[in-house]
C-alpha cells in the first residue's frame, strides 16, 4: 500500500494530526455495484480527492471488482468510468452479503488493511433473506465489537436501511425495515465512544427509489451521489472531515 500522509486540515483539528485516514467501504449489492455502474464508492472517491486531496487519505479493502450478472460472481472491472484508479476501487462489499456475512470477517479485514474509518451500508439483504430486525441488530453489535478488537480507535459511519420497492407491497418487510432502523439508532447511541465514535448517517435527502435507482433497489447516478453525500456530510458535520458534499446530482 502506498504511504498515506497524515491529515493536517480541519479534520486534523477534530480527529488528531497523527491519524492516517484509510477508508474502507463495507456493503451489499448497493455498494459493490454491477458491471457498468459508477458506484457510490466512485462518487465518494471524487469527494475525497476534492476535499482531502491526493496523499491525504487512502481507500483500502481486499476486493476491487463489480458483480458480473452472467457469471454470478464479482469478476467485472468494467466501471462506468474506466479512469477510476484501481487503488481507489478497493472495498469489502458483495452482492447478497449483509451484516450476517461481514461480522465474522471484519476483524481480519481491519487488521490486514489498517482501516481507520468504516463506511457501512448494510441491512436490506439481511432483512429480505436472512434475519429479522432483532437478529440483524445483534449482528451489527457483533460487527462493531469485532472491528474494535482489531483497531480500538476505529471510526464508523452506518447508513440506515433504505426500504426498496418490495417494501411498498410487503407490509411485514416494511415493518422490519422500520424496526431495524430504530434498533440501529439505539445501537449507535449505546456503542458510540469518544475513542471509537460511531455515527448514524441521515437517510439521504430526497432519495426516491423510483428515480434514484434503476430497479427499485440499486442506485443509479443520482442515487450514487445521494448515498455518497449522506456519508460525506455525516463525517464533515460530526468530525470536520473533508467538506460538505458538492457532487453534481445529475446523471453522469
Explained architecture:
The chain has helices spanning 10-15, 29-32, 40-51, 99-102, 106-113, 124-130, 133-150, 171-191, 221-239, and strands at 22-27, 58-60, 66-68, 73-76, 92-93, 117-121, 155-158, 198-200. With 252 residues, it is α/β, with parallel strands linked by helices. A hairpin with a 4-residue loop joins strand 3 (66-68) and strand 4. The longest helix is centred in the last third of the chain and has 21 residues, at 171-191. The protein is globular, with a radius of gyration of 17 Å. Mean pLDDT is 91; it is low at 1-19.
Order of helices and strands: HEHHEEEEHHEHHEHEH
- Helical fraction equals 25-40%
**Basic shape:** globular
Low-confidence stretches: 1-19
> Could you say which structural class the secondary elements and strand pairing correspond to?
alpha/beta
Query: Averaging pLDDT over every residue, what do you get?
Result: 91
Return Rg in Å: 17 Å
Q: Quote the distance from N terminus to C terminus.
A: 30 Å
Percentage of β-strand residues: 5-15%
> What's the number of helices?
9
Amino acid at each position: 500500500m502506498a504511504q498515506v500522509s497524515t491529515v493536517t486540515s480541519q479534520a486534523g483539528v477534530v480527529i488528531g494530526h497523527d491519524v492516517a485516514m484509510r477508508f474502507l467501504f463495507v456493503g451489499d449489492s448497493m455498494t459493490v455495484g454491477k458491471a457498468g455502474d459508477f458506484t457510490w464508492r466512485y462518487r465518494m472517491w471524487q469527494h475525497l480527492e476534492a476535499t482531502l486531496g491526493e496523499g491525504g487519505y487512502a481507500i483500502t479493502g481486499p476486493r476491487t471488482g463489480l458483480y458480473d450478472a452472467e457469471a454470478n460472481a464479482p469478476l467485472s472491472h468494467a466501471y462506468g468510468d474506466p479512469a477510476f484508479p484501481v487503488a481507489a476501487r478497493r472495498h469489502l462489499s458483495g452482492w447478497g452479503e449483509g451484516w450476517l456475512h461481514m461480522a465474522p470477517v471484519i476483524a481480519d479485514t481491519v487488521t490486514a488493511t489498517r482501516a481507520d474509518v468504516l463506511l457501512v451500508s448494510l441491512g436490506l439483504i439481511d432483512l429480505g433473506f436472512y434475519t429479522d430486525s432483532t437478529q440483524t441488530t445483534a449482528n451489527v453489535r457483533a460487527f462493531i465489537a469485532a472491528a474494535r478488537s482489531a483497531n480500538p480507535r476505529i471510526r464508523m459511519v452506518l447508513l440506515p436501511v433504505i426500504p426498496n420497492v418490495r417494501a411498498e407491497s410487503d407490509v411485514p418487510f416494511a415493518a422490519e425495515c422500520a424496526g431495524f432502523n430504530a434498533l440501529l439508532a439505539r445501537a449507535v447511541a449505546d456503542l458510540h465512544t469518544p475513542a471509537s465514535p460511531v455515527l448514524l448517517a441521515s437517510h439521504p435527502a430526497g432519495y426516491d427509489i423510483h428515480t434514484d435507482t434503476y430497479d427499485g433497489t440499486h442506485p443509479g447516478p443520482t442515487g450514487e451521489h445521494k448515498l455518497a453525500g449522506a456519508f460525506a456530510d455525516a463525517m464533515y458535520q460530526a468530525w470536520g472531515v473533508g467538506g460538505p458534499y458538492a457532487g453534481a446530482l445529475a446523471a453522469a
